[in-house]
């Protein structure tokens, strides 16, 4: 392992930390990233010679920071259990009753559609089939599938209006 003298190691760690903080990382985040970069350098040096350990650590820490930022944007901010306030997620009795009534109304609306229109609409909306898949399975054109889905949507929307 390419060992840096303690003074050089300390200076390197400080420079990497400051570079991360200049790029928007908090002190705590920078410390974590520097530690991870140091671990990766140590693991890499087991099998390879690193001629410029400071450059290796700087590049590794910056890459880790970028990866962390991307992951945070994708998954959202992490929170600790202490920060979470749990509330009841069960619907109220009134909301459950209204949902039951809306579903009953929708069921009646679906029954009022022709068999073909209902079958095409449900195949698309519930089964998630594409228009071409539905057309092939029902022996009709894609244009006809479009018309059936549009007709069902229009009729159900009108039927459910006000609910």
Class of secondary structure makeup: mainly alpha
Strand content: under 5%
Could you tell me the radius of gyration in angstroms? 30 Å
Question: Mean pLDDT, nearest integer?
Answer: 87
Low-confidence spans: pLDDT under 50, at least 5 residues? none
- How do the SSEs run, as a string of H and E? HHHHHHH
End-to-end distance: 72 Å
Query: What would you call the shape?
Result: elongated
Characterization of the model:
The protein is mostly helical and 163 residues long. The chain contains seven helices and no strands.
Features:
163 residues; mainly alpha; 7 helices
What's this entry about, in short?
This protein has about 160 residues and is mainly α. It has helices at about 5-20, 25-45, 55-75, 95-110, 115-125, 130-140, 140-160. It starts with 5 loop residues before the first helix and ends with a helix.
Topology diagram in text:
Layout: H1 6-22, H2 27-44, H3 53-75, H4 93-112, H5 115-125, H6 131-138, H7 142-160
């Amino acid at each position: 392992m390419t060992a840096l003298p303690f003074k050089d190691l300390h200076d390197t760690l400080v420079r990497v930390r400051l570079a991360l903080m200049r790029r928007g990382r908090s002190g705590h985040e920078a410390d974590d990233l520097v530690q991870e970069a140091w671990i990766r350098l140590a693991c890499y040096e087991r099998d390879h010679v690193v001629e410029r350990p400071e450059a290796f650590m700087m590049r590794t820490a910056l890459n880790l920071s970028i990866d962390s930022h991307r992951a945070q944007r994708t998954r959202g901010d992490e929170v600790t259990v202490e920060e979470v306030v749990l509330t009841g997620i069960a619907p109220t009795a009134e909301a459950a009753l209204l949902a039951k009534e809306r579903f009953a109304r929708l069921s009646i609306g679906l029954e009022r559609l022709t068999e073909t229109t209902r079958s095409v609409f449900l195949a698309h909306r519930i089964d998630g089939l594409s228009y071409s898949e539905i057309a092939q399975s029902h022996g009709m054109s894609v244009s006809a599938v479009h018309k059936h889905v549009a007709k069902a949507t229009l009729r159900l929307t009108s039927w459910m209006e006000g609910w």
